Amino acid sequence: MELTCPNCHSDLEPSSGMAHCSGCQRDFTVSARCPECHQPLEVLKACGAVDYFCQHGHGLISKKRVAFSLT
Ligand SMILES: [Zn+2]
Ligand SMILES: [Zn+2]
């Protein structure tokens, strides 16, 4: 899943619900959505790791499968 800055189209690195653009020094809010039902995922934080959980029957979603979108 690739996210790009809507202003300068650089690649963004989503982390902890935010993505920082080093090109234009802006922070964007990122929402994690289920790749199956596109509902927002619950974010579970444990020991520095982040898990994503779909409350609509799809269970734990690995970070690679999460559909991030800018809000
Ligand atoms: Zn940018
Ligand atoms: Zn789901």
How would you characterize the overall build of this protein?
By secondary structure, this protein is mostly beta strands. It contains no helices and eight strands. The chain has a five-stranded antiparallel sheet with strand order 1-2-3-4-8, with no helix packed on it. A three-stranded antiparallel sheet has the order 5-6-7, with no helix packed on it. It is globular. It binds zinc ion (2 copies). The site of one zinc ion (ZN) has 8 residues, from loops. One zinc ion binds at residues 34, 36-37, 39, 54, 56, 58.
First-to-last CA distance: 16 Å
The CATH architecture is Ribbon
What is the structural class? Answer: mainly beta
The largest sheet has its strands arranged as: 1-2-3-4-8
CATH fold-level topology: Rubredoxin-like
Could you tell me the mean pLDDT?
Answer: 90
CATH class: Mainly Beta
Per DSSP E runs of 2 or more residues, the count of β-strands stands at 8
Global outline: globular
Share of helical residues: under 10%
| Proportion of strand residues | over 45%
